[in-house]
Amino acid sequence: MAVLPTVLVAALLMGCGVSGGADGREPVSLAGWDVAVIAEDTLELTIPSCLGQPWLTGLAQDDEVVTVEVVTTVVDEGPACADVLRVELDEPLGDRQVVDATSGEALRIRVRY
């Protein structure tokens, strides 16, 4: 598992709210957001945060499911305010589901390669 160090940011700075965890980071639900498959073994997660410095805090992989967990300092539910994390998998995604650990929901998958 490797998280590419670069966080790609697509953000409009209006309307971003600040979270209130002890270190400023809180788990964020990815439910309703897309996961892009940009290579057989690489996901691009869209994070509902606005320059929120998201971190991948959990990645579990088995034969049927890839589960991801993300924390961030800023949470905003609008599509105009989003960060992106790239996540490398141990094996190609294939027909596995991607599940958000925070909400427990399966995420929509878009293949972009």
Summarize this entry quickly.
With 113 residues, the chain is mostly beta strands. It is built from no helices and twelve strands. It has one domain.
Mean pLDDT: 82
Largest sheet: 6 strands, mixed
Distance between the termini: 20 Å
Low-confidence stretches: 1-20
SS element count, helices? 0
Can you describe this structure?
The protein has 113 residues and is mainly β. Helices cover 0% and strands 49% of the residues. It has strands spanning 2-3, 8-11, 17-18, 26-27, 34-39, 42-47, 55-61, 65-72, 74-75, 81-88, 97-100, 108-111. The protein is globular, with a radius of gyration of 13 Å.
Short key terms for the protein model shown above:
single chain; 113 residues; mainly beta; six-stranded mixed beta sheet; four-stranded mixed beta sheet; 12 strands; globular
